[in-house]
Amino acid sequence: MHPRFLYDLDSCAMRRGLDVAGDGWTLRILREAVYGLTRFDDFANALGGGRGVLSGRLKAMVETGLMARQAYAEPGQRRRAEYHLTDKGWDLVPVLLALGQWSERWTPSPDGPTAKVTERATGRPVVVAMTAEPKARPLAMDDVRVTLGPGARRIG
Amino acid sequence: MHPRFLYDLDSCAMRRGLDVAGDGWTLRILREAVYGLTRFDDFANALGGGRGVLSGRLKAMVETGLMARQAYAEPGQRRRAEYHLTDKGWDLVPVLLALGQWSERWTPSPDGPTAKVTERATGRPVVVAMTAEPKARPLAMDDVRVTLGPGARRIG
Predict the structure, then answer these.
(1) Is B156 part of any domain?
(2) How far is the C-alpha of A142 from the C-alpha of B8, rounded, in Å?
(3) Shortest Cα distance from B60 to chain A (angstroms)?
(4) Would residue A74 count as lying in a domain?
(5) Hey, are the CB atoms on A106 and B98 less than 8 Å from each other?
(6) What is the tens place of the pLDDT at every residue in A33-80?
(7) Helices A13-21 and B87-106: crossing angle, nearest 10°?
(8) Between A11, A103, A114, which is nearest B109 by CB?
(9) How many domains does chain A have?
(10) What range defines the domain where residue B27 resides?
(11) Which ipTM value was assigned to this complex?
């Protein structure tokens, strides 16, 4: 028997993270939030699929504390729902950026990256990386900017 | 219209990464590989679900280059399949470690982390973090060790 089975690993942090965000759509919604979407209708437009399904997914993200829901109304329109990433939600974004960097490393876009991550203060490129350097000052999402890169093809 | 819709973002690296690894089970299989599993029967035991489903999922991971399949046979037994992470697969592990660190940050385990990530050369704790420091030497998976932490409860 492999020694892994000597331990109860069901509540390991990786597993708990997967239970919250490893479902195949939380990170897709998060990606749209990184690109700036907040409105239910915009998420629906970007992600496709049924509105009821999306509504349930956003509700789950509110319940796990990744999103906060607020109402807004444009003049003369009925109230609609907006979803904003919470601090906990923003803090998950580096996971998605790490996934993007992995993808760009192993299957680079022919036209260059669609999104660029840079340090706000200096404009230097940001990487997500493992470090054991105690003096390393990790950047927070507030310190970085995600902008469109050369691979973002304009269609509109 | 939100400016996000002026661009074709379907081939952004985050999206392409999600297409490969954001399905809800690739990272679960990866987690078991980090804990040392290689044999089909062990993955089946750890992950539950049908063997046909698991077989298809491992096959997909071989096709996307995350896993390599090899045969092994114990004396007197028929040949069975073993799955080993490739370099590309190992390089995805920091994404999972980042997810685990996020989870531990926002919902810490009462008994301490189940898994610890340390630098092989120094034993120092490893974090996955964003950095814009050009001199930062990112660690590779070969440089780090994942071991069980105080929260790993022995059951066997």
Answers:
(1) no
(2) 26
(3) 16
(4) yes
(5) no
(6) 999 999 999 999 999 989 999 999 999 999 999 999 999 888 998 898
(7) 90
(8) A11
(9) 1
(10) 3-148
(11) 0.95
